[in-house]
Amino acid sequence: MLGATYSLLGIGLTLVFGLMNVVNFAHGEFYTLGAYATFAALVLGSVNFFLAIPIAIVVGAAAGALCDRVLLRPLRGASIDTVMLVMIGVWIAMQNAELLGWGGVAKNIPTPLPTQPLTAGPVSVAPLRLFVFVVSGLLILGAHLVLAKTKLGRAMRATFQDRETAALMGVSIDRIHTITFAFGAGLAAAAGALLGPVFLLYPSMGDLASLKAFSVVILGGLGNFAGAALGGLVLGIAEELGAGYISSGYRDAVGFIIIVVVLLLRPAGLFARAERVG
Amino acid sequence: MRRSGSRIVVAASLVAAATAPAWVWNPYHLHTLIMAGIFAVLALSLNLLLGYTGQLSLGHAAFFGIGAYASGLLTVKLEWSPWIGLVVAIALPALAGWVIGRLALKIRGAYFVLLTISFAGVVSLVSVNWMELTNGPLGLPGVPPLELALPWLGEVSLRTKSAYYYVVVAAVALCYLVCLGLVRSRVGRALVALRENETLAESVGINVTHYLVLATVVSAAMAGLGGGLYAHYTRFVSPEVFLFTYTVTMVIMVVAGGKGTLAGPVLGAVLFTALPEVLRAATSWQWQMLLYGVLLVIVLFFLPQGIVPAVQRRR
Amino acid sequence: MRRAAVALSLVVMVGLALIIPGAFAQQDPIKIGVIQPLSGSVAASGNYIRMGAEIARDWINGRGGVLGRQVQLLIEDNKSDPKEAATAAEKLIVKDKVPVIVGAWGSSMTLAAMPKLEEYGVPMVVETSSAASITKRGNPWVFRISPPSEMEALGLERYLKDLGVKKADFLAVNTDWGRGAVGAFGDILKKSGANVGLAEFMEQAATDMNAQITKVKAGNADTLFITTAVEQITLVLRQAQEQRLTRKIVTTGGSSAPSQLIKQAGPAAEGTYHILFFLPWFPEAMPDGKLAKAFVDEWNKRGHPFDGLTEGFRGHDGVLTAVEALKTAGKPDPKAVRDALWKVQLMGLNGPIKFEKDGPAGKESGQSKPSIFLVQIKDGKIALPAFAKK
Predict the structure, then answer these.
(1) Does this chain's domain C28-147+293-368 share its CATH topology with C151-276?
(2) Contact: B310, C3; criterion CB under 8 Å
(3) Yes or no, beta carbons of C3 and B303 under 8 Å apart
């Protein structure tokens, strides 16, 4: 169930890495931002729950675009480590700004969905989790369609494959980068908006999300869209099984061990043969 | 002229470092300096990989933590001498570094980053869950301080801050010299060649794997030394030593100070150990980490190469 | 240009550092250090305790302070990191010269700060930490007002029969606190003839506990003990309901903020039992009803979240204890305050505070024996179970 939201997180991160060569440590903070934006729209702005989610996505994307314009564009020529460290700085600053703005007390997003689980034979599932799963699936599909079918998606794929040629063909690299980063941040915010009601909101919630996103990306192969989508599902399932059969204390180790094994056996990612970006 | 000017600065800071306990009368500031020294060891260690081979290890806290635990466990549970503990604190992470280096034969760049992160993640979980060995999340209190047995003075406890300060300074100097030796030797040139163009380096007959493993081993050993020093200074080891923030702090020090230089990590360590303390004095707690993040972004934004290279270029 | 900007910002920072401490230089208040996790994963609890400590400070100052001087709290953030706790203690002792500290929430943070207390000889009132080792280490500068898990388990013993526990599983956070609670409660259960089933752990930041709940569900115990922070309890309860787990649930550690659970876990929290050290719903049922009532009113007046009261009281009691010792000592001197702490006898929000000797002879730490209460969530409200009424 949660695998689908891991996929959302992973896709955003993998696109940003593949296209822009940016290791985005602040990725989890856009997830947090999405969750808090949902909370703000819902509780403070008294907007409908189903409307609050798109609002959160827009807020996340806008913040991502801003971050790219202000910080990443001027640093385009800098080394990957420098940019990564800048994102670490953004991560620390955003997380503490959230702490300052919202306080450390956990917040809860109320949903109109019933809490009683739906049962079909031996399987029971909460309606909320089903909703999260379906919406995540739709968003992944939507993201795929944008990349595969639209003119913008073509430009993004072209940039990914060969930046210089794409630029020669009249693609504005600056614009594509901003859109990509906003796209990635928006997807992370969507994951935050969806998981917020399942879990609780607190300023450091993004750390765990970042960790999951990185695991997903490495599983799927860096910069690989389909890989990230599948990797999220695999991670979600592996964690459940791992905790069920091994000690729950080592539950998070499952993700790490998968990463190490995958890296050693198939350094290009589990789904290296799958089509890249879209 | 300029050259001698920089020599004066270097000499002055060396003298300042050597005599610090005499004029830093406030033990809190001395404490900050000791922490800065421990982090300087760690930053030098990380820099060897990041600055010279171009490989970023984001699992460096694992080597640091293994060192701290190795020394802590041997001295607390087996009551061995802390000096033997320190030696093991160097040897064990070096071994781990060798394994990582061997595993990472074919892995470069972002994949190396992820491998090291995962390694640190696993080690950290082991430290929490292997109760029998590590005491789990309860941590290991009561790590003994370093003692020095001199034949004509008897036992000298290095428990006082000024004494420990010199131990740490000696460690920094040792690591600095090891790095200097490595970098100036054939090894260093091979590593830089590897960083700049691996295929080319291989084609002129440099055994890339060999040098990469060597760099990882030395780097891990130094991080382990930092861990051992930390354990005997704070005298408490808990799984928090594996926190990702420790690695992040090291990366900040190296990159902001200037990677690929030897002075950069040391300067970075001093600056970024002092910064949180300055912020602690300057603002209330709500703003400290927020400002820390913002200042980090500002420094990098204007000096993407780091502080030391920016100063060098000016000359 | 750019470098100039950087240089300028650095100069401004250092300038601020020099100016701000000078601003406090009026009539020489007595300083008390407070070390709490104000940022990081457990920031909520640390902030509640800060709020409670501030109420105690304002009340004391309203009554004219102590030794004719006002009380000033120097609040430091340990960022939920032991290294920071040690550094904060060093800073408070050496730079600010505080005669007494209240802190440092988590056991690993307290343990990391303890060598500093010994090194400089400054006492610390420990307000939350539960690890037994804190008072057993032979650090004569430690005075704990919170119950270690063993004491808490002992406090529950008299209710075990009424609760009807025959076999219990444990689900705890994988920290010193969770591990300690599983051990202590397990011992008491065995002693009183009940069986102990599974002991499952979850990482502090974990949000999905379905796998652990599945395991518990597969067993045949009748009770589940949960030890973790309120956020994680909320998630466990919700996920247990999704999985239709039917167990008697008891939370330990006093951090469960049941009114927050009612709001955030809703029907999933129905019927659960909670061990607490302060009952803001029934102030009159507390050992000092008037004090408890006044504290709850003041807390509400300041607009602090009601759910924080079950943590916030610790800050109040910690500061009150420190001030009482300062008064007895007659001067803000760390050693005198330490000696005075042994003589402290007062009524806090939790109940009477009085230190007994604990740990190796000759260098004992102080341990007070706090009161322990049990409540149940019933029909969406907090209730005292019939068997637990006074």
Answers:
(1) yes
(2) yes
(3) yes
Residue ranges covered by each domain of chain C = 28-147+293-368, 151-276
Largest Cα span, chain A: 59
Query: What is the extent of the structural domain holding A97?
Result: 3-204
C-beta of residue B264 within 8 angstroms of C-beta of residue B257: yes
The answer to whether the CB atoms of B248 and A252 lie below 8 A apart is no
Chains that touch C (3 or more CB pairs under 8 A): A, B
Mutation target for A interface from C203, C231, C239, C241: give the one with most A CBs within 10 A: C231
Confidence (pLDDT) at B227: 95
pLDDT at B215 exceeding the cut of 60: yes
Nearest-by-CA chain B residue for A67: B297
Please state the φ and ψ torsions of residue C266, each to the nearest 5 degrees: 55, -130
The answer to whether ipTM exceeds 0.95 is no
Chain C contacts of A125, Cβ < 8 Å? 242
C205: helix, strand or coil: coil
Dump pLDDT digits (tens) for B264-313. 999 999 999 999 888 888 877 778 888 988 998 888 888 888 888 888 77
Return the minimum-mean-pLDDT range out of B229-233, C3-7, C36-40. C3-7
Assign C300 a pLDDT band (cuts: 50, 70, 90): very high
Q: Flag whether A214 is in a domain.
A: no
For chain B, give every domain's residue range: 2-314
Split at pLDDT 50, 70, 90, the class of C50 is: very high
C133 CB near a chain A CB, below 8 Å? no
Candidates A66, A94, A256, A266, partner chain B, best to mutate (most B CBs within 10 A):
A256
Instruction: Assess if residue A271 is contained within a domain.
Output: no
Nearest by CB to residue A86, choosing from B128, B300, B305, is B300
Per-residue pLDDT, averaged over A34-50, amounts to 89
Instruction: Summarize pLDDT for C2-14 with one digit per residue, the tens.
Output: 555 555 555 455 4
Q: If you classify domain C151-276 with CATH, what class do you get? A: alpha beta
DSSP annotation string for chain A:
-THHHHHHHHHHHHHHHHHH----TTHHHHHHHHHHHHHIIIIIS---HHHHHHHHHHHHHHHHHHHIIIIITTTTTS-HHHHHHHHHHHHHHHHHHHHHHH-SS-B----SS--SPEEETTEEE-HHHHHHHHHHHHHHHHHHHHHHHSHHHHHHHHHHH-HHHHHHTT--HHHHHHHHHHHHHHHHHHHHHHHHHHS-B-TTHHHHHHHHHHHHHHHH-TT-HHHHHHHHHHHHHHHHHHHHHS-GGGHHHHHHHHHHHHHHH-TT-TTTTSPS--
Split into its structural domains, chain A has a count of 1
Asked if residue A220 belongs to a domain, the reply is no
Structural domain includes residue A238 = no
Give the pLDDT band of residue B183 (cuts 50, 70, 90): confident
Task: Determine the CATH number of domain C28-147+293-368.
Answer: 3.40.50.2300
Alpha carbons A267 and A154: distance in angstroms, whole number: 27
Hey, are the CB atoms on A104 and C38 less than 8 Å from each other? yes
Residues of B in contact with A23 (CB under 8 A): 110, 113
Range of weakest confidence among B34-38, B197-201, C148-152:
B197-201
B2-314: which CATH architecture?
Orthogonal Bundle (1.10)
pLDDT category of residue B112 using cuts at 50, 70 and 90: confident
Is there a contact between B141 and C16 if contact means CB atoms under 8 Å apart? Answer: no
User: Exposed, middle or buried by CB within 10 Å (0-12, 13-18, 19+), for C284?
Assistant: exposed
